[in-house]
Amino acid sequence: MSKTESAAWHKDIAHVVHPYSNLDAHATRGPTVITRGEGCYVYDEHGKRYLEGMSGLWCASLGFSEQRLVDAAVKQLHTLPYYHLFNHRSHPPGIALAEALTAVAPEGLNHVLFANSGSEANDAAVKLVWYYNNLLGRPEKKKIISRLYGYHGVTVASGSLTGLVHVHRDFDLPLPSVRHTDCPSHYHFGLPGESEAAFTQRITDNLEQLILKEGPETVAAFIAEPVNGSGGVIVPPAGYFERVQAILKKHDILFIVDEVITGFGRTGRMFGSETYGLKPDMMTVAKGLSGAYQPISGLLLTDAIHDALKAGSRKHGAFAHGLTYAAHPVAAAVALETLNVYRDRDIVGHVREVAPYFLEKLDALAGHPLVGQVRGVGLLAAVEIVADKAARKPFDPSAGMGAWIQNRAMAYGVIVRAIANCVALCPPLISERSHIDELVGGLARALDDALAHARENKWL
Ligand code: PMP
User: Fold this and answer.
1) 3-state SS of 314-371?
2) What is its EC number (predicted)?
3) Atom 7 of ligand 1 has which residue's CA nearest to it?
């Protein structure tokens, strides 16, 4: 048995179905088995250390060994390991978390419906939008508009909202009531010679045209991440959301803001909504809500929407929606403690301090022959990989360049993520400058190797 081919490695291949992995290749390639974590680092089963430059899946914001979160979980497990919120029951961690979360949330979001994942929270948003409009007596107002390269999850409704072909293809998605509009990336979708302002005007005009074509009386909601994450870390152009929100208001369309990645300090403010001046009617949160130490998510609602739900109960009786483990007391206790840690350590202030250094270091890679663009905000960034800088042309997908760079960076002890034609970075919010140096340094070495690899293969 070689070093990679441990007993765990074989058992994994035999039994585990891996999300977002090439299941065919996995049979021979096998897994990287991660066994423990410490600070911003994780270790594999052979003891190799990696700087987790993606915070796992954009989520482990406080790193991998925060004792306060462990203690909160253990204490709650000893006190009340499980209870629920159905049928007028409640429990202290659920109540305290709802209070703390709505206190830090953008103004007006005073109510929260808990779930376990980002997908479930976005699914609930879709259901509540439909329910809301039924209760308002406008059953035809049901369509939801999301954006190409937006990511909102993989369940039937949230997967439909996600604007990525591979999430739909052969899964019989999207749902018929979902429409997709432009991705706000000037770099990728700007016309030759088109200014960023003209691009913003054009794509927001397209949004309004879509609404008018469908009939505003049939369009219920628009959903967006403040910064597209899994679609390639797309930072919106100036004025984009201002124009989008004016259009939504004009046509009486609800704005659902997906803060699953951007929530809790990632962009240098508590929420991306603050960074970009958004006024959500509904907002979804997950990931950083618990620093990823427990699965928990939430759908935050305004008084107006909550009032409609109450009206629904006057009509139908009990609100017929809920998940067994939503607001699980252990997850809620950990999330509450996570919010306390953010506050006590001024994590948002720390992000604002370290982010300029992070972005400056990454910007230094912009001159690299394989780097088409460096973009980011706060501690969220991407480096666009190109075969031709001037033409903004990516490598042929068959070259597998993104995965190659990702694997090379891993060999150097740094975890980044290849998505679309870019390499994404989303380091823990507790990262210090030394971590940033190590992360960007590892990526730079991987890029240099990738350049040599591309030249050897005559791809350049
Ligand atoms: N929304 C966004 C913005 C996300 O990034 C993700 C996950 N990457 C989701 C929703 C879905 O969350 P989950 O994987 O917890 O279902």
Assistant:
1) HHHCCCCCCCCCCCCHHHHHHHHHHHHHHHHCCHHHHHHHHHHHHHHHHHHHHHCCCE
2) 2.6.1.96
3) 153
Q: What pLDDT, on the 0 to 100 scale, is given for residue 50?
A: 98
Q: Count CA atoms within 13 Å of residue 454 on its CB side.
A: 25
117 C-beta closer than 6 A to ligand 1? yes
Please state the rounded mean pLDDT for residues 229-252: 98
Query: C-alpha dihedral over 325, 331, 333, 338, to 10 degrees?
Result: -150
Residue 295 Cβ inside 6 Å of ligand 1? The answer reads: no
CA distance 120 to 153: 8
228 lines ligand 1 (CB under 6 A): no
Q: How far is the CA of 73 from the centre of ligand 1 (A)?
A: 23
Which ligand 1 atom sits closest to the C-alpha of 119? 16
Q: How do residues 295-341 score in pLDDT, each as one tens digit?
A: 999 999 999 999 999 999 999 999 999 999 999 999 999 999 999 99
The pTM of this model reads: 0.98
* Burial profile 357-367: b = 16 or more Cβ within 10 angstroms, e = fewer: ebbebbbebee
- The confidence score (pLDDT) of residue 3 equals 66
CA–centroid distance, 260 to ligand 1, in Å, is: 6
CA distance 56 to 118: 15
- Pocket lining: 328 vs ligand 1, CB cutoff 6 Å: no
φ, ψ of residue 372 to 5 degrees: the values are -85, -35
> Does 2 have pLDDT greater than 70?
no
Q: What is the pLDDT of residues 357-413, one digit of tens each?
A: 999 999 999 999 999 999 999 999 999 999 999 999 999 999 999 999 999 999 999
CA-nearest residue for atom 1, ligand 1, is: 152
* Residue nearest atom 3 in ligand 1 by C-alpha distance: 260
> Once rounded to an integer, what is the mean pLDDT over residues 227-238?
98
